[in-house]
Amino acid sequence: MPLNGLYGDTIMDHYRNPRNRDPVAAPDIEAHELNPFCGDQVTLQIKLDDAGRIVSTSSQSEGCSIIQAAASMLAQEMRGKNLEQVLELAQSFRNMMRGVDVDDQCHQNLGGLEALQVVRQYPVRIKCALLPLTALEEGIKAFHAGNCTR
Ligand code: ZN
Fold this sequence. Notes:
Elements: H1 5-16, E1 29-35, E2 40-48, E3 54-62, H2 65-78, H3 83-97, H4 104-110, H5 126-148
Antiparallel strand pairs: 1-2, 2-3
Helix pairs in contact: 1-2, 2-5, 3-5
This protein binds zinc ion.
Zinc ion is lined by residues 38, 40, 63-64, 66-67, 128.
């Protein structure tokens, strides 16, 4: 699949040089997602500080260039945010991938993830770009559920 232009270059750069692959020690949040149709899989790990801010992240992925780039970009964009902010980021990203009109504010929030909008040209690959987000959302859900039973 030809990914040209600035955004394409960014995606290929993350694919070839994935960020934050090293596992996080004692993660507060950990989630794994698999897409059985193409074999893509991703594991996300998040460590929070006492204030609930994300201090370290890890994303390990296998599969196509899109899942690997998306996982790498997400791991990078999450750092320094709190869980509420990352869920907002996830929602903005999902809207962008679905072609919902997003205002400039949302685009700013997306940071590096904005590059993945080129994947919209390949509808079957959109799922690949969204898989790390699903992992993120499931991980946060499980985290909150765990906190409630404490
Ligand atoms: Zn894929």
